[in-house]
Amino acid sequence: MSTVTTHEAFVHPALFYRTEQEYTQQTVAFLREGLTNGEPMAVAVPGPNLELIKAGLGGDAEGILFLDMTEAGRNPGRIIPKVLRGFADAHPKGRVRIIGEPIWAGRSAVEYPACAQHEALINAAFEGRAVTILCPYDEVRLDPEVIADARVTHPTLISGEGHESVSDAYDWQAVVDRYNQALAPAPDAAVFSYGGEDFPAVRQFALAQAMRLGLAGEQLMDVELAVAELTTNSVVHGGGRGTLAVWAEQGQLVCEVRDAGRLTDPLAGRRPPQRGQLGGRGLMLVHYVADLVRLHTGDDGTTVRFYLSL
């Protein structure tokens, strides 16, 4: 695999593979180049692909951090702060090399917009940093739309044979904007309108609805915490009021907060706050406890929808 672009600060290639052999050959070559350069390395890919890479590396796998992306990146909104930034920030000197595969054939249609936005926002999150993140894409099992989006979110493209080219479609902001989709309210949701005086009541409402729909155990604390953070944001930053809706769909509890605020930072909730920073932690906390977060922001206000498995 050629990495002629590694003189640039941030390098973000997409690897398009069609077979296990292509996948193993290109990812192992990428990692062995990092070993030669003495770069700290992490691999976050779905479990079966993780085993392919480990087998291909053999004894060279020692010292590389391996993470199953189906667990570490189940919610695509926490991959940047917890997986990618978590590793890169722990190695601030010299170049860091990562393989991240956040999109696989098992991802649902509900999850995909957040995945596509994640891939786009990597470019903003790591601009100017000495980090290389290789993102593999299965050309056989993924939809053509996914492959087309990858050409927009990655400035460099690598084929299964290792040929490298510059993407003529690269425009990460376009993908962020395209998937900033309005989220239609569920017709059968239980709804609570709240203001600053309703914090205890809105939390109790969320817990009661979650239990009614079958949520139990520690996840109830996750619901209470996430709802507290989002409703507080509504009152402080979103016009002073908002609505909470709770319902169940396809084996998941869904909680949605709507208010009149507008987010201006595309990395809100995905950018770790600086030491001593006031605010900026609430939405990231929601990403950490939820299985999925969908978000829409615009002139009509902001909607944050989070999902937990029942």
UniProtKB/TrEMBL annotation:
Keywords: Kinase, Serine/threonine-protein kinase, Transferase. Signal peptide: none annotated. Residues 12-155 form the MEDS domain. The keyword Kinase applies. InterPro entries: Anti-sigma-factor_SerPK, HATPase_C_sf, HATPase_dom, MEDS_domain, RsbA-like_anti_sig. Residues 199-306 form the Histidine kinase/HSP90-like ATPase domain. Pfam families: HATPase_c_2, MEDS. It comes from the Bacteria. This is Anti-sigma factor RsbA family regulatory protein.
